[in-house]
Amino acid sequence: QVQLVESGGGLVQAGGSLTLSCAASGSVFSIGAMHWYRQAPGKQRELLATITSGGHANYADSVKDRFTISRDNAKNTVSLQMNSLKSEDTAVYYCYGQISGGSGFRGYWGQGTQVTVSS
User: Fold this and answer.
1) Is the separation of the CB atoms in 108 and 35 below 8 Å?
2) For a pLDDT cut of 90, what percent of the chain falls above it?
3) DSSP codes joined into one string, the chain
4) Which are the contacts of 69, defined by CB distance < 8 A and separation ≥ 6?
């Protein structure tokens, strides 16, 4: 079984920074694209950033120039560096990845980590 586990959430003041991490464990054979999403109360889950297996990144306009996604293929981890945080960044943050356990790729979600930005 494959698991994705996020860490690094917490409470931060507006203008501050946080780094979220997501680690894949279990029967991981290969990892494709990895993504970070967030979901605020009463809102739909929003795609924030994507990084391909080759390291190419894309961002939503709402976080471009503030957030940076990166990955460490050797450690099976993906991170999200978040700078200049705003109160509207408050949400539960999830990582999602296309992962192969050796018999094709499927999508996996992490359990989520809460980020709260105080104004």
Assistant:
1) no
2) 92
3) -EEEEEE--EEEETT--EEEEEEEEES-SEEEEEEEEEE-TTS--EEEEEE-TT--EEE-TTTTTTEEEEEETTTTEEEEEE-S--GGG-EEEEEEEEEESSS-EEEEE---EEEEEE-
4) 34, 36, 49, 50, 51, 57, 59, 78, 79, 80, 81
How many Å apart are CA 20 and CA 4, to the nearest integer?
13
CA dist 6 and 77 (Å) reads: 10
Per-residue confidence (pLDDT) for residue 36, from 0 to 100: 98
Residue-wise pLDDT for 13-43, tens only, equals: 999 999 999 999 998 989 999 999 999 999 9
**Confidence (pLDDT) at 20:** 98
